[in-house]
Design brief:
Length: 253
């Protein structure tokens, strides 16, 4: 089985996503989070660095696990309990862990937001959703009504889609920010958009959507963020001649 040095794969991910200097949440820690095997023949991709995905990656003989949500979201804390079990499983399994959060959301070709927008039939026009002066999502045009778009998204993502009907019935300009992107409702309203497609929202976003005149499509945090890790894993596998797989562990959220 063909393998490549892990440094080459890490460099591929870092360069492709322009990880260095990309703004993110304090504990995202984009990049290689745990060292593992020195050579990689198989990459596993998953949304979350959970005990389940780590176990399945090890059982599937992967050498590196690529995730969107890494190990350290809770910040500085003792390596005990679930965190200890995850680190122990990674080390004992010889499994390296690479995490890419906002750099993967934002990528124009391989990112969660761009892929979901294209798959949903959005004609992408430009970036949207500024986080520390870097746009994470994309906006574009559609020719659809709310019900039809919700139906298309339900089929595409394989789950329920909740619609907060704040905007017009007929849609023309929409934005896509995967995961927890409802905080960009004000920006959508300021830009004259009819709808925002995202994963999940907080209670107050219902009223925000209704009062700002922007429909909010809630498609599931997990469901909207499977795209990027799959696309990146497939790209590195094609480029470097190694194997890859996707570990699907949906949360229903």
């Amino acid at each position: 089985m063909h393998s490549v040095e892990i440094e080459r794969i890490v460099q591929f991910f870092d360069d492709t996503l322009a990880v260095s200097g990309f703004p993110d949440y304090p504990h995202a820690l984009n990049g290689l989070q745990v060292e593992g095997a020195r050579s990689v023949a198989k990459v596993a991709a998953a949304v979350d660095a959970s005990e389940a995905t780590i176990r399945l990656a090890v059982e599937g003989n992967a050498d590196l696990l690529l995730v969107h949500h890494g190990l350290f979201w809770s910040g500085l804390r003792p390596v005990t309990g679930a965190l200890y079990r995850k680190v122990k499983a990674l080390v004992e399994g010889g499994l390296a862990l690479y995490s890419a959060h906002l750099p993967l959301d934002a990528h124009a070709e391989l990112g969660n937001c761009a892929i979901l927008a294209r798959q949903a039939g959005v004609q992408v026009k430009g970036p949207f959703g500024a986080f520390k002066d870097r746009e994470i999502g994309w906006w574009g045009t559609v020719d659809s009504d709310r019900e039809a778009l919700a139906s298309d998204l339900k089929i595409l993502l394989g789950g329920d889609v909740r619609v907060i009907p704040g905007g017009p019935e007929r849609l023309g300009r929409v934005a896509v920010v995967t995961g927890g992107g409802a905080s960009f409702l004000s920006e959508a309203a300021d830009q004259g958009l009819d709808a925002l497609i995202t994963g999940e929202a907080s209670h107050h976003h219902y009223h925000d959507a209704m009062e700002l005149g922007v429909s909010l499509f809630l498609c599931g945090h997990y469901a909207t963020e499977t795209w990027g890790v799959r696309a990146l894993a497939e790209r590195v596998a094609d480029e470097l001649g190694i194997q890859w797989c996707f570990i699907d562990e949906p949360t229903g959220l």
